[in-house]
Structure formats: structure tokens, C-alpha cells
Amino acid sequence: MAGETTAHTTSPTTERADPGDELVAELADGVLHLSGSLSLAGVARHWKRVRELVAGSSGPLAIDVARLDSIQGSGAALVVELALELERDGRGGEVRGATGSVHALLGLYAPDEAAPPPHAHELHESFLAQVGRRSIGVTTGVFEGIVFIGELTRACGRTILRPATFPLREWVVQLSRTGPDGVAIVALVNFLVGTILGFQSAVQLENYGAEIFVANLVGLSVVRELGPLMTAILLAGRSGAAFAAELGTMKVSEEVDALRTLGLSPHRFLVLPRVAALVVTMPLLTIIANAMGILGGLAIGCGAMGITLNAYWQQTASSIETSDVLTGLAKAVAFGAIVGVIACHRGLSTRGGAEGVGRSTTAAVVTVLFALIIADAIFTYLFTLFGL
């Protein structure tokens, strides 16, 4: 059936087509009531008449869709467009009465609220306002870090009480990535550091005829300071950045939320294996770094300064005590924990898609390097204070 629409403000306006495409429009008391169906065929046949009905009215106008039986995407788009036009003309345009599937479909086509331009609030901020805002940001970051450490500690406690829940396979994978895969770069860099340190110290000690003490200087410096610190810096740029990028990508792709939905703790299944892997591999890599650093100094001492191999080795062995090695390994364990915790925290704090992942990775590396230097200074002061 097909009929002609009669448009006025006091009686219903009905458009008849197929039974499934029937549309009734009534304009009364500043409200446009729509009922029937807003299907693709019905919109094509009847919407022009509805627009004419609206154009023939004046004053504020709302759109009531409470009596719509069904609606399709085309109908929802046109209702939203009509509401926006009325709003731009200063005539209201509020959509009322949407429920169920009608409400859901209209919500899909409704425009997002206009986001303010980035950093617009900073254009006219005073200096004190900027300091206050940044101070609040730093305080919030510290609070989130404390909460993160608390969650990780709780995950560690639960794993100790129930060892079977520890993700062993993921831990082994991370051990491989942070350990054997990093041996080559750690060995090469620390060997070069040893050669540089040996050459620079030899230039000065040669003036006093004390070339043999190159072995003492290189050995102690590498074992107590440079070995653990250089290894931690390399792992911060290698494994720390990888952790932040991996977890950041999982966060923005909602994989972390999926874990929580399944009742699984991201701290136990994502963070704990990575931190544990670094805590284990850092001391092992530090031992390799110490050996390569000493070999680098030996290459300079024996190759450029004429010190015999036996003399250099005996001088190194006599200058390094067990406490020196243990303090270096203690630093390595702490450095491994610092790299893992900060990198994972930055990764799980990621927001904003791919750009956010890049920012989190950069922030992770910078924060880890800063924390490593601070921690090394604290360790050095404490070991000196207690005579270690």
C-alpha cells in the first residue's frame, strides 16, 4: 500500500508503503514523534516528507523516538543529522525516548564530543599554575608506582604460597631473551670498556713508573662498579625497552584488560616472569662482563705496556677480594629488579595507541637510567660506610 503524507502540527502524519516500512510522524507541542519503522526502504520513501514537516515548523523542536519499532543504520544517521541541524539552528534538537536497540544504534552514529586542542590549557597558564600541575603529575606518578610495587609484591607472595601458579614457560622464554641473547653485546662492550680504562690509566701511571697497578685499577673498577652498571645500562636499552613496548602494546590492544576479565593478574603472569628473569640473568651477565673487562685491561697491559701475563694476573688476583665480587653481584641483582619493575610499570601505564607505546618506551629507558645511577651512588656510599 502507498499513501500520501499529510503534514501539519496537530494531527498524525502517516506514510504508508510496505507493512514493514510504515512510518508515522507527528508534530505536536514542539516535539516530533516518530513511530513505526526507519528501515532503508522506508527512509528512501518517507524521509523527505519528514524534513518538509520539520521545515514547516518554527521554534524549539525535540525528536521523540520512543515509539519506533525498529531502526536501521541509514535511519539512525538521518535522525542524528536532523538533531544536529536543529541544534546548529538554535532549535534544540534533543533526541528523546531511545531505548534498547534504537538507543544503541543512535549511539553509534552520535558524534563524539569535540576534544580540546592539545595543551590548550597551558597557553595562558601562569608559572605557578604550571608548577602546580606538574607537581600533581609527579605525585600521581609516584603514587601509581607505589601501587604497582604493592601489586607486584602481592603477586610474589601468592606465587610463593602456590608455586604451581608461577608461569614457568613464560619465565624460561624471558630468561632466553635477557640472558643468552644478550651475552655477545655485554661481552663486547665490557671488553672495550676494559681496554679504554686500561689505556687511560696506563698513560697516567706510566709517569710514575707504576704501570703494574693498571691491573689493580682495572680489576677493582670493573668488578665493583663498571661491570654491574654497564651490564644494567645495556639491559635497560635492550630488555627494558622491549618489556615496555611489549606490555604497552598489550595494554593499548586491550589484552591486559582481557586477562583481568578472565580473573588473571597481569602482575603475576606478565610482570613477575620478566622481573624474575632479569634478577637471575643480571648476576650471570655481570660475571661475564667482569671477566671481559679484566681481559680488556690485560690486553692493554700486556700488549702495549710490556707487562707479563703472569705478573698482570697475579696483581689482579691480589687486588680483588671476595667482598668486591659479592658487592658487585649484589648491585647486579638490585639493578635487574630496578630495570624490570620500571620497564613493566611504564608498559602497563601506556595510553594513546602507537604514539603512547613510543612515549612509554622512551620514558622507561630514561627513568631506568636515572634510577640506576641513583641506586649505584647509594650502594657505593653504603658499602664505603660499612667498609665493604
TrEMBL record:
GO terms for molecular function: phospholipid transporter activity. NCBIfam families: MlaE family lipid ABC transporter permease subunit. The chain crosses the membrane at residues 294-313, 325-343, 363-386. Residues 1-14 have a biased composition (Low complexity). SUPFAM superfamilies: SpoIIaa-like. The keyword Zinc-finger does not apply. PANTHER family: ABC TRANSPORTER PERMEASE, ABC TRANSPORTER PERMEASE PROTEIN-RELATED. Residues 31-95 form the STAS domain. This is Putative phospholipid ABC transporter permease protein MlaE. InterPro entries: ABC_MlaE_roteobac (IPR003453), MlaB-like_STAS (IPR058548), Permease_MalE (IPR030802), STAS_dom (IPR002645), STAS_dom_sf (IPR036513). GO terms for cellular component: ATP-binding cassette (ABC) transporter complex. Residues 1-20 are annotated as: Disordered. Belongs to the MlaE permease family. Keywords: Membrane, Transmembrane, Transmembrane helix.
